[in-house]
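Hello Y.,

Per our agreement to keep a running log of every chain we model this quarter, I'm adding this entry. I've kept the format consistent with earlier entries: sequence first, then predicted structure.
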Amino acid sequence: MIDVSLINKPKSAMKAEERVRSFQRKIYSKAKQEQEFRFYVFYDNSLPYFLKEAWKRVKANKSAAGYDKVTFSDLVKYGVEQYLAEIAEELKTETYKAQPILRVYIPKSNGKLRPLVTY
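Predicted structure for the entry above:
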């Protein structure tokens, strides 16, 4: 169901979460209407909103440190805004390189191990 309150709301008055959801709906609609259409680059003025929303969601999930061992408290000390701005710049300049994932194996009931991927 579409949130009608977002239709006429100016972007400047929208929260990061609303902007992300609005953009996701537009992409979904475009993909459904034109199945042959290919999306390429999404780097625009909305990027900071996406990164802020991603930060908020990951933090709410209370995830553990990943492969790089950087924790939430480490990022808060460093400066969340600065960290997100650096990621945005790397994405815009196409120099961002994702860190490897942390793979942990958990035992199954049959004695074998199952990979558990954490991001």
